[in-house]
Amino acid sequence: MEKPADTRHPIHDLLARRWSPRAFADRPVAPDVLRSLWEAARWAPSSANQQPWNFLVATKYDPQEFCRMVECLVEGNQVWARQAPVLMVSVAARLDRDNDPNAHAWYDVGQAAMSLSVQATALGLFVHQMAGILPDKIRELYQIPASHEPVTGFALGYPGTPEQLPDKLRQREIVPRTRKPIGEFVFTGRWGQVSEIAKG
């Protein structure tokens, strides 16, 4: 299933097609495909090229490891995410190379995640990122050092069908995608003053 964005201005097809389904097909993702996704993340921009991202990964090739990562998701996400063939968690380095706080780490991790997501779309895959993770459990199970912080979870795979989801989630899967108009977030001159360019 695809659900392309109803854009008001032209954007690249990969960006229009990228979305976050909850239904995933029972089809494995090959290791070389995963390596392509991480390569895309590797080349994301970052402040001072510090590349503060790390990824924990679990696939259904290793059921024990996969179940362990499922336990790191909030219950509502476990319901559907356990159907995906790949689960991941992004982790940010809190400190920069001088051991000072890296205020841009989370932003940079987000850029790596977006690069990964667009590459996934190009390869016929979809990524659903999740704020609903259990950071303390992740830290404990994976022995993450205090210098690093779990950021988001990812369910990744080939698209499934809405029929495989529980009723409530099925409805969310099929409703049209929506976004704020650009006039609500592009300002000029002062906060809240809509840019004339954004009105075009």
What's this model, at a glance?
The chain has 200 residues and is α+β, with helices and mostly antiparallel strands. It has seven helices and four strands, in the order H-H-E-H-H-E-H-E-H-E-H. The chain has a single domain, classed as NADH Oxidase.
Structural commentary:
The protein has 200 residues and is α+β, with helices and mostly antiparallel strands. It has one domain (20-176): NADH Oxidase (3-Layer(aba) Sandwich), CATH 3.40.109.10. It has seven helices and four strands. It has helices at residues 13-17, 31-42, 63-70, 75-81, 105-122, 135-142, 167-174, and strands at 53-59, 86-93, 126-130, 148-157. A four-stranded antiparallel beta sheet has the order 1-2-4-3, sandwiched between helices. Helix 2 crosses helix 5 (105-122). The chain starts with 12 loop residues before the first helix and ends in a 26-residue tail after the last helix.
- Roughly how many Å is the radius of gyration? 18 Å
Helix-strand makeup class: alpha+beta
Query: Any idea what the CATH superfamily is called?
Result: NADH Oxidase
CATH level-1 class = Alpha Beta
CATH architectural designation: 3-Layer(aba) Sandwich
End-to-end Cα distance: 32 Å
Tell me the strand percentage band: 15-25%
Strand order of the largest sheet: 1-2-4-3
Number of domains: 1
Tally of alpha and pi helices: 7
Shape: globular
Query: Biggest sheet, in brief?
Result: 4 strands, antiparallel
